[in-house]
Amino acid sequence: MRLRLLLGLALTGLTAFPAEPAPAPKRVDAKELARLQGEWALVKRTLSDGSVCRYKIDKTIGSDENLTFDGSKVVTEMTYCDPTDTLDESVELDPTRSPKWIDLTILDASFPLRKSKGLTRLGLYEFDGGQLRICVSEWGAAKRPTDFEPGEGRDVCEYKRIKR
């Protein structure tokens, strides 16, 4: 009986079992990701309330917060902590969007954020050689920012490439 049902469905163009869904397109563009590789020092952060924090760059340590892109992973080091706190995140990019999309997913952390492994920040990014600007939502937020303006639940960070 089951065989006849399968055969009948096959002859009509239907299948008894759903076809495996096509894999979701990867949003990691190797060429774009290669352009981000290396170290970046935070120079300016605009908080959700509009207040601005500026950071000086020191040639030996970068700034109070540094990003290091290594493959499809980014490590944030917060040197203002003793010892330095680190946050490891995976990176997904979609440079075909305008503005370009970046998603950062927590892999590990040296501080209590470790409990939030797997949460993602949806964001936007733009860069021009030695300058990188990122606007990200809070971890786990369902909405991606639509522009680079600070607002409720999102900050805008500006980085400068570190050359050591």
Description:
The chain has 164 residues and is mainly beta. It has a single domain (27-161), classed as Lipocalin (Beta Barrel), CATH 2.40.128. 10% of the residues lie in helices and 41% in strands. Strands 1-3-4-5-6-7-8-9 form an 8-stranded antiparallel beta barrel. The radius of gyration is 21 Å and the shape is globular. The N and C termini lie far apart (72 Å). Mean pLDDT is 80; it is low at 1-26.
| Proportion of helical residues | 10-25%
CATH class value: Mainly Beta
Cα separation of the termini: 72 Å
Number of helical segments? Answer: 2
Q: What structural category arises from helix and sheet content?
A: mainly beta
* Contiguous uncertain segments of 5+ residues: 1-26
Counted beta strands: 9
SSE string, helices as H and strands as E:
HHEEEEEEEEE
- Mean pLDDT level: 80
Number of domains: 1
Q: CATH topology, anyone?
A: Lipocalin
The geometry reads as: globular
Strands side by side in the biggest sheet: 1-3-4-5-6-7-8-9
CATH architecture: Beta Barrel
Percentage of residues in DSSP E strands: 35-45%
The largest sheet is: 8 strands, antiparallel, barrel
